[in-house]
Amino acid sequence: MISLDAITVEAILLLALTGIIWSWLSNPIKNYNSPHWLPLLGNAIQLAKNKHKFHNWVLEVSERFKGQTWAFQIPFQQVRVVSNDPQTIRFVLKENFDIFLKGRRFHDNLEPLLGDGIFNVDGEPWRVQRKKTSRIFTGKNFREFISKVSFEEADNLHSYLKEMAASKGVIDIHDIFHRMTMDTFCRIAFGYKAESLTAPATPPFSLAFNRIQNMLRQRMLNPYAKYLELVNGGRAILRSDVDVADELIYKIISQRKNDPRQEGHHDLLSIYLGVADKVDDIDGITGRDSEKFLRDMVMNIILAGRDTTGQGLSYTLYCLLEHPEVLAKLREEIQSKPRPTVDSDLYDIVAEFPYTHAVFKEALRLYPPVPGNTKECQKDCVLPDGTAVKKGWVVTWSTYTMSRKKSVWGEDADKFIPERWLTEDEHGKKAVIQESQYKYPIFHGGPRICLGMNLAILEAMTTLIHIMNDFDFKLLPGQTIEMETSITAPMRYGMKVEVSERS
């Protein structure tokens, strides 16, 4: 006689077998290149094993498939199609701009920090903000204000390094660059002097901002993180930190609205208020909603500016210390020309220091501050290489991988060679080559190309010119310099250096 237990076991096994067969037959990517797809689990095990080195895993898989498009999928989540071809990036970012959007999942994951700001919305809300912000970024007053702030914060960094050199201290220069860029972009965004660099303890706003970003990083990496927050207390911590950041921003917004000397401010918040038809009416957004609009704008600018420039400077210094011959050439250029001042024009600085510019661009190529990007497809389509993408799927590209792709950058693609960016006219004058934004999508591309691109370049070049000729930096031995898996590309363990003044 067959026992009830035996029947139960057989039923479970039959159910499991049925599930496996169904999963196999319904696999949405069975005709695509895919790394170790398993029934029921998809690529979940591979992703879990490699989450600590996600960007290098994407590189390894892409090389395994010889640069061809591939796909991965985990249960209850969108299929992701990975293509690291400049033609695909152009297809997505420019030619089919209205088909490939940020999407609801992206928006909801980052909403606590970015709200409905320019980097977190699509369609008409994005167009409204883009139009207004682009006018501001090209305005003469704002350009002059940016230049002033950039030089003042570079001077503050110089003074800080001078103190550290005198005390023969060891510093985490990765952290220091981020403190400086936090100070810079808080001033540019809403006129707030965070003083992260000089404060004995990190200010509450900066601490809250960092914790919010770390929490949201988990959401981007783990599709189930939002649910785990409800269990492990993370959601309450997130809300508390958002409240800390919001309290300061809303307080300053309120002060500016009631400031009769509004025209005396040149930060982004003040200009937004100044160009509105009425202080409480921004493109039809009124009352508290207008304050939320301004709050979201401030948060978006700080996130984009701080990380792009702080990480770009960190990896640039790392590359220079690993390539002393390049550092020598950079110093030779800085020594050969008058040091720029606060009155210098951005475009003059970029033109007068082509090698410094090339060094920064090459460091960004190998270590892009946004190492990967995604867009959600709104209707079935076919990529330029013939890959079918269904509505609701996500197209992903890895700028980190593409920068190491020999078919794109040549046999020396994985080498740090600033000279690849330089050209010379018949009179021997050097200039920096402008590559296609789809081959070099460091600042995105198409209609959403980064409005702050020139600002990031100015901030970085100003900093390098200020410090690289006056200080020596020595990497502490035994440390690991590697990229954290995140929304952006922070160094996982920072970068410890000894700093000393040059004679």
In brief, what are we looking at here?
The protein has 503 residues and is of the alpha+beta class.
Architecture overview:
The model is unreliable at 276-282 (pLDDT under 50). The chain has one domain (78-501): Cytochrome p450 (Orthogonal Bundle), CATH 1.10.630. The protein has helices at 4-25, 44-50, 54-64, 86-95, 104-114, 123-137, 140-166, 173-190, 204-221, 225-232, 234-257, 268-275, 287-322, 324-335, 346-352, 354-366, 399-402, 406-409, 453-467, and strands spanning 70-72, 80-82, 100-101, 170-172, 281-282, 285-286, 372-377, 381-382, 388-389, 394-398, 422-424, 430-432, 471-475, 496-501. The protein is globular. By secondary structure, it is of the alpha+beta class. The chain crosses the membrane at residues 7-25. Its cofactor is heme. It holds the Pfam family p450. This is Cytochrome P450.
- Overall residue-averaged pLDDT value: 87
How many structural units, i.e. domains?
1
CATH architecture label: Orthogonal Bundle
Structural class: alpha+beta
The end-to-end distance, rounded to whole angstroms, is: 94 Å
Q: What is the spatial order of strands in the main beta sheet?
A: 1-2-10-7-3
In CATH terms, the superfamily is Cytochrome P450
The stretches of 5 or more residues where confidence is low (pLDDT under 50) are 276-282
Strands, total number: 14
Give me the Rg, rounded.
Answer: 25 Å
Oligomerization category of the chains in this entry = single chain
GO molecular function, one term: heme binding
Family: Belongs to the cytochrome P450 family.
Cofactor: heme
Keywords: Heme, Iron, Membrane, Metal-binding, Monooxygenase, Oxidoreductase, Transmembrane, Transmembrane helix
